[in-house]
Amino acid sequence: MRPKNSAAPPNFIIFFADDLGFADLGCYGHPSSVTPNLDKLARGGLRFTDFYVTVGGCSPSRAALLTGRYETRSGIYPGVLYPGSIGGLPLNETTIAAMLKPLGYATAAIGKWHLGLGAKGTYLPTNHGFDHFLGIPYSHDQGPCANLTCFPPDVKCFGECDLGAVTVPLMKNDKIIQQPANFLELEKAYSDFATNFILTSTQKQQPFFLYYPSHHTHYPQFAGMRAAGRTSRGPFGDALLEFDYTIGDIMATLDKTKVLNNTLVLFSSDNGPELLRRSRGGTAGLLKCGKATTYEGGVREPAIAYWPGRIQPGVTHELASTLDILPTIAKLSGATLPPVALDGLDMTDVLLRHGRSKRESMMFWSLNPSKKHGLFALRLGKYKAYFYTEGTSTVPDPDCVAPLQFHDPPLLIDLESDPSEHYPLSLKERPDLQHVLEEIMKVKASLEASMEFGESQIAKGQDPSLQPCCNPECSPKPSCCQCP
């Protein structure tokens, strides 16, 4: 319990959407999204226009957020982790939760972990600084679609899901409590769990950190009775609304427990929209392409920071990233930074004073990074240079499906005048830009020289015996892995 006269340390909540595009929220311009609670946060908080994740993929983006380090350092590459993956986020990586634990913080994670399961739950959140975990250890589409009921009344999902995998489990800490997970009741379970966590922490006068990486709005979408059929946007809109309702529940709990004014709430998404799903994949609006690319639509995300009395409402055009969350929380909490190479920068000046960002550049590796190719793209100030481009999604824009292409000289884009990246600048027509390109190449060389690639955790491969099964001795697998 805190001494009577000491100031209460701030609490922290991170809401992290899944496959949500830059233009998917009403407060970012979507005309038919229904997100009253996120819109309220945007009105009362700071909305970012130039906020980035490190990469357009689920597992590596999560690793970067939680560690403040590029995924290449922690080894969460290439691609994403699977139910039977042997590797995971290395235990010597310090997460935000682990950083806060020495200060007495209660820590909890709910939702989509996707940073590894491993043998005997080696890589679960409870081994990465979190006291509590309720969620699915990987992506909810990494299981057979036939076991996923998306929307009442009992409408089955469709799509290509992993028919040879176990049904998707719901875990509490390191135990499977339900397999397959009941998706119609899942969001309510998360909301109840988060509410109880906050209530318990405040009753103990204990500061807390809640990390909620949602399954929404990753395809195939789902929603329970509270949100199903409630929007004009269809499955994507209903799933987004369900996430928004949970955010509203959590914000109401902060108000009820009288800690709203002492809690920093951050919202963003892991990567851009999965455009191959068309209307069920989300939208990046005027930004180019989407998930799994280094174009703006794949890595620039909606982001909101909310803290009544500390953060003044407004919009910032300062450059910021999920990498910056760990050092910012360290500054605000007084936590000691991990003794490793960090890529994040403290952004308290941006949050609390609407000041200038310490971040001048942002670099982007592909989902399949290598020392051979190096950086795919780099933003410096308002300019972004592409050394390689590669598409991935089935969409009308041919650049979004184009094969790997090397650019020498790099493609140079002015993101302020051309956010859709339609018009690469010509050095022949604009010789004055030569110095810009020279500065970009200097920054690129410095960043690449400082990058130490960690051992690839995903390259360790998969072992089917590691797929979670609530009845490990049953047969035949995977179909027998079912528990109430």
Tell me what you see in this structure:
The chain has 484 residues and is α/β, with parallel strands linked by helices. The chain folds into 2 domains: 11-362 and 456-466, Alkaline Phosphatase, subunit A; 377-450, 2-Layer Sandwich (Arylsulfatase, C-terminal domain). Helices cover 22% and strands 18% of the residues. It has 10 helices and 17 strands. The protein has helices at 36-44, 58-67, 71-74, 96-100, 183-203, 235-256, 296-299, 325-333, 348-353, 434-450; strands at residues 11-17, 46-52, 106-112, 132-136, 149-151, 155-156, 170-172, 175-178, 208-213, 263-269, 300-306, 314-316, 320-321, 361-364, 377-380, 383-389, 405-414. Strands 1, 2, 3, 4, 7, 8, 9, 10, 11, 12 and 13 form an 11-stranded mixed sheet that branches. A hairpin with a 2-residue loop joins β15 (377-380) and β16 (383-389). α5 runs parallel beside α6. The longest helix has 22 residues, at 235-256. It is globular. The two termini are 38 Å apart. The model has no long low-confidence stretch (mean pLDDT 94). InterPro entries: Alkaline_phosphatase_core_sf, Sulfatase, Sulfatase_CS, Sulfatase_N. Residues 10-334 form the Sulfatase N-terminal domain. One of its GO terms (molecular function) is metal ion binding. This is Sulfatase N-terminal domain-containing protein. Keywords: Calcium, Glycoprotein, Hydrolase, Metal-binding, Signal.
